[in-house]
Amino acid sequence: MSRAVEKRRREFAAVRWCARTALADLGVGPVPILPGERGAPVWPEGLVGSMTHCDGYRAAAVARVRDGVLAIGVDAEPHAPLPDGVLEVTALPAERLRIADMGRLEPEVNWDRLLFSMKECVYKAWFPLTRRWLGFEQADITIEYEGTFSARLLTTDPAVPADGFTGRWLVEEGLIVTALAVTTAQS
């Protein structure tokens, strides 16, 4: 157990180092990035961001609200199939059909894990805007082969400027990475 706790502590520190580096790129001095409600990072006033980590990968993205960015979602996952039973509780029936079709055309991609990562990415953008939970069943994801995806939100909130989000995805070097930005242009 102590080894797992130490590993988690190192991941926590490493992903926050990524965030401080990204903040420095915006000219923001060193600041603590503490976990807030539901573990979401608390960003300095006027900034938004997202962090992610998985085995062997850590990343953070930040932006200024004054530049028209309202929220960011970033997620990374190992490029491996989901454990048994996870897809059934995280994907809508239509999503499962779509990724089954995609899997027949490009079987080298773990479409189930990619879909899961997209759902996580959407949640990471949704929660800072609304301070509300977004269940897996409340976003319908459509994946495009060329590296984009769209998420149709099946719930609404006045803080969200659109009825869906669009993002990008990449599968490379054993990793899945998904990202999206919610902007004022989506209003």
Automatic annotation (TrEMBL):
Pfam families: 4PPT_N, ACPS. The keyword Transferase applies. Mg(2+) binds at residues 75-77. Its cofactor is Mg(2+). It comes from Streptomyces luteogriseus. The lineage of its organism: Bacteria, Bacillati, Actinomycetota, Actinomycetes, Kitasatosporales. InterPro entries: 4-PPantetheinyl_Trfase_dom (IPR008278), 4-PPantetheinyl_Trfase_dom_sf (IPR037143), 4PPT_N (IPR041354), Enbac_synth_compD-like (IPR003542). Residues 71-159 form the 4'-phosphopantetheinyl transferase domain. Keywords: Magnesium, Metal-binding, Transferase. GO terms for cellular component: enterobactin synthetase complex; plasma membrane. GO terms for biological process: enterobactin biosynthetic process. CoA binds at residues 8, 16, 52-53, 75, 120, 124, 134. Residues 2-63 form the 4'-phosphopantetheinyl transferase N-terminal domain. GO terms for molecular function: holo-[acyl-carrier-protein] synthase activity; magnesium ion binding. This is 4'-phosphopantetheinyl transferase EntD.
